[in-house]
Amino acid sequence: MPGRDIIVVGASAGGVEALATLARHLPADLPAAVFVVLHVPAHGTSVLPKIISRAGRLPATHAWDGEPIRPGRIYVAPPDRHLLLKSGQVRVARGPTENSHRPAIDPLFRTAARAYGRRVIGVVLSGLLDDGTAGLLAIKERGGLAVVQHPDDALFPSMPRSAMDNLTVDHAVPVAELGALLSRLTNEPLPAVPKIAVPAEMQVEADMAELELDALQTPHRPGAPSGFGCPACGGALWELRDGELIRYRCRVGHAWSPDSLLAEQSGAVETALWSALRALEERAALAQNMAQRAAERGHDPVARKFAAQARECECDARLIREVLLAKRGENAESVHLESDIEPAAGRPPAVPPAKA
Fold first, then answer.
1. Which of 117, 232, 234, 247 is the most exposed place for a label (fewest CB within 10 A)?
2. Which of 25, 39, 82, 254 is catalytic?
3. What residues of the chain score a pLDDT lower than 70?
4. Does residue 349 contact residue 302 with C-beta atoms inside 8 Å?
């Protein structure tokens, strides 16, 4: 019977360094296939496979749709595509974003759990917010193992810390020790226990990531209506619960954790404020122009009316500008606090990660 021969890895900010270190410590005879999702921009070229291949002894390539799964290889999600697993093969699909990302970590973890159950080891590395937590829960639900980079060792500890806060992880280790741990786990025999069935909601969510029409068109949505709208498409969001963990998913498959939904809503609010500021300043300028023209023609009552409108718009614009400046200060403070996290012993202070 196969052992734990499917390793799925998710990373975000600070993930390039962590993935290179992990690759450096993986043995050349690893009896497992490794699948990697790193949050990367949708439009751009990723050189992550080259970085991983140079760092370690296992070959790394961008995955292609329908590619067979072979042990001793590292499959990397290409930009703007989800990396998904079927029995015996890789799927690469442009499915709906999750937590505002494509590729996203949760679809890889969820489809791995669906296809391979106890044979899966899920690994969450450095990153912001909480992508990967729901995926690790799916892996645990199907009998797999959950492993995280210890938050004290991560450049950005939010993702591994979220996993530890929401489920019982099996191992939390520095990334330099992760290769040896994975090598040991893949060589351990699996205990003989009854097979765990794939939950119906996990099946539907995995199908959504692959743009399966039956999953997208079914009237029976996982979860209950939340009263919130999807920031990506404007549709209604359904609330899903995995124990204490709450998630949201819309009709067409966009998925959000509470943290990512709040962050996306914050961005939408700022966009709306900038639009309102632009509209008010344009209206104030137009009203001032019309007041000047009326005054030049001797229409003083009309000039006073337009001048009053201009002053009102300028006042409203000033208030919105103050709100935007306050939000900018909050964002700067947030970045400052994140950069002030004490690094692990012997490591340099946290710096923004290089783009892959």
1. 234
2. 39
3. 1, 211-222, 328-356
4. no
Q: Are 205 and 223 in contact (CB under 8 A)?
A: no
Mark residue 301 as left, alpha or beta (left: phi above 0; alpha: psi -120 to 50; beta: remaining): alpha
130, 131, 153, 242: the catalytic one is 131
pTM of whole model > 0.70? yes
152 catalytic? Reply is: no
Determine the pLDDT at residue 356: 39
Query: Could you report the per-residue pLDDT of 172-210, keeping only the tens digit for each?
Result: 999 999 999 999 999 998 877 777 888 777 777 777 777
Strand partners, 271: none
Prior bond to 348 cis, omega within 30?
no
Amino acid in the structure at residue 43: H
Which of 12, 46, 158, 162 is labelled catalytic?
12
39 is catalytic: yes
Instruction: Give the separation between CA 236 and CA 218, rounded to whole angstroms.
Output: 15
Q: Is 12 a catalytic residue?
A: yes
